[in-house]
Design a protein that fits this description.
mainly beta, single chain, 114 residues, four-stranded antiparallel beta sheet, six-stranded mixed beta sheet
Length: 114
């Protein structure tokens, strides 16, 4: 059974940093693309970043240069380092198996305050 659990969300001031984690189990993590999505009432579902099994990365235009996705295949964990956060980064953040949104965790809320 695929299981994904996000952690690390919370409240952070604009300009600050936050690190999200995604613990995965139930599949061969080291052989699987992983993706971070976010969803907010004003913007809908957005692909934030993804990372290939070997570490190649993709970033959405809104986070390029500020966020960094990484993974530890030995621990089956994916990370999202969020730097210089902006008010518009406020959203529920989900990690997902593969590049789609079907197999995802329950999410972790990130709220950026002025």
């Amino acid at each position: 059974e695929v299981r994904l659990v996000e952690s690390g969300g919370g409240s952070v001031q604009a300009g600050g940093s936050l690190r999200l984690s995604c613990a995965a189990s139930g599949f061969t993590f080291g052989a699987t693309y992983m993706t971070w999505f976010r969803q907010s009432p004003g913007k809908g579902l957005e692909k934030v970043a993804n990372i290939s099994p070997s570490g190649n990365t993709f970033y959405g235009d809104d986070v390029k240069g500020r966020f960094a996705v990484s993974r530890d295949n030995t621990k089956s964990i994916m990370y999202l380092n969020m730097n210089n956060v902006k008010l518009e980064d406020t959203a529920m953040y989900y990690c997902a198996k593969g590049t789609g949104f079907t197999d995802r965790g329950p999410g972790t809320q990130v709220t950026v305050t002025p």
